[in-house]
Structures are given as C-alpha cells and as structure tokens.
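REQUEST FORM: STRUCTURE PREDICTION
Request ID: SP-0412
Submitted by: Lab K.M.
Chain count: 1
Length (residues): 80
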Amino acid sequence: MKPLDLSVTKTAQILGVSRKALSEFINEKSALSPDMALRISIATSTSAESWMNMQQKLTLWLAEQDAPDNVEAGALKRAS
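STATUS: Completed
RESULT:
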C-alpha cells in the first residue's frame, strides 16, 4: 500500500471490505481468507492461488517455529 500511496481506508474501499477487516489482515490478526485472496487478486491482476500459496507457506512456517517435540520421527512408516 505504501508504494502505491494508498491508505488503509482507500485500499479497503477498493477491495470492497471494511477498514477493520483489512486492518486485522495487515496487522496479522487474521489470516488471508480465500475471499480476501480473490479480492486482492482482482484488484492487482494476479492470481488468488498465488496469494493463498503465500499464506499457506507462512502458516506452515509459523507452525514449524513451535514444532512438537513429542512425535516419533518415522514411527508410522516403520510400524507398517
């Protein structure tokens, strides 16, 4: 938004969402939804899939930061 000199209010208007919804997304209080990905893709002439892929990669990376340490690596493969 900064490179385009757009405010949160103006960007929310362009995307057809509330300022609050966009603010929560920008401030990482909510994940990217398929609806928001579609809206961003339309507004930027990009694909919704690319936006969802970025969200999925971020979500997985965040999960890896708190990876469980009580799972036996490879145990299910050896059990079969």
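NOTES: The CA atoms of residues 63 and 69 lie 12 Å apart.
Reviewed by: T.R.
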